[in-house]
Amino acid sequence: xxxxxxxxxxxxxxxxxxxxxxxxxxxxxxxLAAGLLIDTGTPGLYGRGAxxxxxxxxxxxxxxxxxxxxxxxxxxxxxxxxxxxxxxxPRATYEKTDYVESFPDxxxxxxxxxxxxxxxxxxxxxxxxGEQWDHFLAxxxxxxxxxxxxxxxxxxxxxxxxxxxxxxxxxxxxxNEPSPDPMRMRSFRMREFVRIGDPExxxxxxxxxxxxAFELLRxxxxxxxxxxxxxxxxxxxxxLLANGQLDADLKTEFxxxxxxxxxxxxxxxxxxxxQDHFGQKFSISCADGSVAHTTCTAFGLERTTLALFATxxxxxxxxxxxxxxxxxx
Amino acid sequence: xxxxxxxxxxxxxxxxxxxxxxxxxxxxxxxLAAGLLIDTGTPGLYGRGAxxxxxxxxxxxxxxxxxxxxxxxxxxxxxxxxxxxxxxxPRATYEKTDYVESFPDxxxxxxxxxxxxxxxxxxxxxxxxGEQWDHFLAxxxxxxxxxxxxxxxxxxxxxxxxxxxxxxxxxxxxxNEPSPDPMRMRSFRMREFVRIGDPExxxxxxxxxxxxAFELLRxxxxxxxxxxxxxxxxxxxxxLLANGQLDADLKTEFxxxxxxxxxxxxxxxxxxxxQDHFGQKFSISCADGSVAHTTCTAFGLERTTLALFATxxxxxxxxxxxxxxxxxx
Lengths: 329, 329
Prior knowledge:
Keywords (chains A, B): Ligase
Oligomer: homodimer
Strand order of the largest sheet of chain A: 3-7-8-12-11-10-9
GO molecular function (chains A, B): ligase activity
Number of strands of chain A: 12
Protein name (chains A, B): Amino acid--[acyl-carrier-protein] ligase
């Protein structure tokens, strides 16, 4: 019997293929059963349990150490200055990134209420009638953070010093992709090591991290591979942008086969050359007046943590000793 | 010369009272100058620097230890189960809290885009004309988290065991109160110890934490006081609710005089008796079938961290040794 989604071979219960769960659903079930994730009842939104959070924090610590060991890639070898942003950022900064041009479907905009008693009574009356009440709100001056590095470009000087700049950023990001796959959360943390400077510096930084991130993820016992990739640019025009990004080899993803052969391997990190995109949008120049280029190496903290549980099992106490050692568990 | 805001006495520069900055602005300036906070250009939204984040994480660790020492207040003495939620949560859960009835002005609702190429072209055309484009989005199924404990009530069983339940929650909250006062952030983290059960259990839990939180905050060298308080219920009807809350002594705030006599002391934590509000809204019953009561002791992580810097100075290396010891610095 052929299963419509081609996952019958992975089903634990023979004969139940009509109602068989996908590998994504089964991974999700195992995470919920182990208390690693907490179901909120809404696709792509999870709470985290104690054990999940412990591993994620260890991962952050390892990345902090990796950044220290990579300070040779930073201006003057002084390391990555730390920036931590919350989950929302100024709409004015979001607008500068032009994110809505390429990723409208992933965007989250925030509305707020600034009416008085009368407007509130009308809102409550609509709500009591079971109607939507968002039209009593108005677009606010903040947006959900689209990528961890987006708030940082606003912090850079318009004219960089000779050696350029660097940043270590970490924070919650929003991507509106409701999915039964726990690897695709809508709200998740991303850690990024950003370098800003001339094109040659940027290429060298990215090349070095392509190897360092690969070695690091391998040290966690993950079956990681590096693949040329593209961002999920929206719509028909987006296909051209995606092809251009692929052709120019500007994005490399670190992917892990979470679901074996049943689904494409999932990206848990990436090393990106944004060329002069952010330099243009945020008016950042190199010391010689040319538009600054930027690169970031980004680690999906939830995805990397989940890849560890998918690879080594939901009981971290039983993980291979080399993996525990790499994560200082 | 009388300063219109009554802060002339605190001004460092005599004769400059016309352009004198408020104590709030001067505290903000000192935090930005020290790299503790990072200005995003939008009121109430900040990035955090390395040193600020280090202190906040130490504070979290101290609270973890305080919770362990308070496990006598939890079901079976087993401690507070850990729940970590992201900055957004299901709209369905938000609706259950009835938050929009009492705090519409603090609420943040999320809109998303689900159109195709044509709608996206129209959005982009409006944006190019400099028009607002939020009307191309639609209300989504998520909201910004209004209080750290709000997502947790959905996780509780409809019928509690005899000993009730408890939770340790921590996460980003949103309150739309743009302000020049850095103590009033719009996006901040809150740590809460929640107890759910019969009214007597709830009163005892709150009473114990009133003392424990007080001692803890005192151990940080903070000039903290406990005061009866009320939530900022919205509008004219809200005044009645606020008075009722005050009269029934359901909310105690831990306040610190951040700005001396120049402004009211600021709450950095609170111990609250929500009576049967969440039990009703989330249909949670005690073992005997009666509606469950809830209490939470909530620590504003940014506010407590800022109170430390306001009290002991922006250089944590120079803090009193007893304070450093209390925070394991």
